[in-house]
Design a protein that fits this description.
Blueprint (H helix, E strand, L loop, with lengths): L4 H23 L14 E9 L9 E5 L2 E5 L2 H18 L2 E6 L8 H4 L4 H9 L4 E3 L9 H10 L4 E2 L3 E3 L12 E6 L2 E9 L3 H4 L2 H4 L2 E3 L2 H13 L5 E7 L2 H10 L5 E3 L11 E3 L2 E4 L7 E10 L5 E10 L9 H18 L2 E5 L13 H14 L3 E4 L11 E4 H7 L5 E8 H13 L5 E3 L1 E7 L5 E8 L2 E2 L5 E7 H4 L12 E9 H12 L10 E5 L7
Length: 528
């Protein structure tokens, strides 16, 4: 057999080269992996906030179709707050609990204890600050001062001053600093400039409320000197005013609002400033999660949610139930009395129409006083009345204020002015004994063309006997015309008692609604 040496040589050399190549590949180290960026150490904070609680210690039972649902209530709020704190402790997070005012007025539990039950609850669940709202003055400034001394947390307001010496009120701090895990949070309080309109004059006439935006700028500069990591304005000025605050005052990180009872399911964002508000009466609680860089203290991310109360699976908090129970026997004895019977529900409505419940309320005031005309502000009607048995508790929740009836004489021209102001404010007064007829012009302007007093046309120069509540009689809600009333008589009857007596005297009541504000639209070229 003949061997081709040359061919064999090249074949062997090729195999050797291939072997060497494979060996080299096998021994070549893999390319170095890219180094992963070290994780930023974060610090987690949770801010829980409420507003306009209005003494709603007990949950409300609301009918929806054939079902009855439970809404709100301090025991259910407390259960959620405790759950958040427990989870946060396990995860190393810190929790803050804040309230934006109007915390205790509005229910038997709040009113009959003059706020004591609510403050006891807030102490127990460990609120860290509350801004003073207008309804904190409903039981007098003296009562507010007493509650501030009972509370374990500060009351805040940076724009409340005494007129006599231009000094800040003694029972409120303008701001506080909360220090947690090496971080500093500035909390600034701000109270509505409309305090004179929406609080009883006798309790606030000696106070001066400084303008919101200039005050906010001044206080922001003061707190900024301490170099806090996060600036919060805890306000009771309303959602519209909160947005103006966010637009016009730089350097605010978060505005937690109250006063307008606004239900915000997501924040309104103005640059780096978030505006939030959590409805009212404990129906929901706001939750803001913040994550900061532990080293640089820079805010890395944040998240907001509005949490409905009660939360599924959480039982009412026992300790809160005990707080309620301490006051309950005396309250329930009064509140469970049956007053009357309604064949159909009566609802309140805002805006420029009368409402079924508003009509009934004004009718009740006119009947109790013998006046020709009755006026009641919509804001003084705080709940609806259901069909069926009406207990005193329900009357109380509709009329929680201690306003009394005031008789006076007003000229027809002054009554006309009251109707005009209602349209100007976009919320008319509920009325009995009169009807208002108006036109809406193509440009949106409203023109009152006729007012009937009973069956007669209103006479501008004639005197009429008018009844209203003491809040309006003092010019409340901006209706200063009532202050011009002559031959005033303080009747000593509360507006709540007038409603109670009317329901008792007319039950079973099948109340028929009529709109007492009649409008007609004016098309272009018609009706000049």
């Amino acid at each position: 057999m003949k061997i081709d040496l040359q061919k064999s040589f090249w074949k062997s050399l090729s195999l050797l080269f291939l072997f060497t190549l494979l060996l080299g590949c096998a021994s070549t180290p893999p390319p170095p992996k890219k180094k992963e960026k070290p994780k930023i150490p974060l610090v987690h904070f949770i801010i829980l906030h409420t507003n306009d609680f209005h003494g709603q210690m007990l949950p409300k039972m609301i009918k929806k179709g054939k079902n009855t649902i439970v809404v709100g209530g301090a025991p259910n709020l407390a259960a959620y707050i405790k759950k958040v704190r427990k989870t946060a402790e396990k995860e190393g997070a810190q929790v803050m609990l804040l309230d934006a005012g109007d915390c205790y007025q509005g229910t038997p539990e709040g009113n009959l204890t003059k706020g004591r039950m609510v403050i006891d609850y807030m102490n127990y669940i460990q609120y860290e600050a509350m801004t003073i709202g207008n309804h904190e003055y409903d039981f007098s400034e003296k009562n507010l001062i007493a509650l501030s001394r009972l509370s374990n947390f500060p009351f805040l307001s940076s724009n409340l001053f005494r007129k006599k010496d231009f000094q800040p009120v003694s029972y409120a701090k303008p701001y506080i600093f909360l220090k947690k895990k090496g971080f500093t949070f500035a909390i600034v309080g701000l109270t509505t400039q409309d305090l004179y309109k929406v609080a009883a004059e006798k309790f606030v006439s000696h106070l001066m409320v400084m303008p919101e935006i200039p005050t906010a700028r001044k206080i922001r500069d003061q707190v900024a000197l301490q170099k806090p990591d996060f600036i919060i304005f805890l306000t009771h000025i309303g959602f519209e005013a909160d947005q103006e605050l966010a637009k016009n005052v730089k350097g605010i990180d978060l505005i937690i609002g109250g006063h307008s009872h606004t239900r915000l399911t997501k924040p309104r964002i103005f640059g780096k400033c978030w505006v939030v508000q959590a409805h009212d009466k404990g129906k929901a609680i706001g939750r803001i999660d913040l994550w900061f860089n532990k080293k640089t203290h820079q805010l890395v991310k944040r998240k907001y949610q509005l949490v409905s109360i009660p939360q599924p699976g959480l039982k009412p908090d026992r300790e809160t139930l005990k707080i309620i129970g301490e006051f309950s026997p005396a309250i329930e004895k009064i509140m469970n009395r049956v007053i009357g019977f309604l064949k159909k529900p009566l609802k309140r409505v805002g805006g420029t129409n009368s409402s079924p419940l508003g009509n009934l309320f004004a009718d009740a005031m006119r009947e109790a006083s013998g006046a020709q005309i009755a006026f009641q502000n919509k804001g003084g009607i705080r709940d609806n009345l259901p069909a069926g048995k009406i207990r005193y508790r329900q009357v109380f929740q509709v009329a929680p204020f201690d306003n009394t009836l005031v008789l006076m004489k007003l000229k027809g021209s002054e009554i006309l002015e009251l109707f005009k102001k209602g349209f100007q404010f976009k919320e008319v007064l509920e009325v009995s004994g009169a009807k208002c007829y108006y036109r809406i012009r193509p440009n949106g302007k409203i023109e009152i063309y006729q007012v009937m007093i009973g069956n007669q046309l209103l006479e501008k120069d004639q005197d009429y006997v008018v009844v209203t509540n003491s809040f309006l009689a003092d010019g409340g809600d901006g209706f200063s015309t009532f202050k011009q009333g002559r031959q005033r008589t303080l009747m000593g009857i509360s507006y709540r008692k007038a409603l109670e007596d009317y329901l008792r005297n007319h039950s079973p009541l099948d109340y028929q609604y009529e709109n007492r504000y009649y409008s007609e639209k004016v098309e272009k070229g018609l009706k000049k």
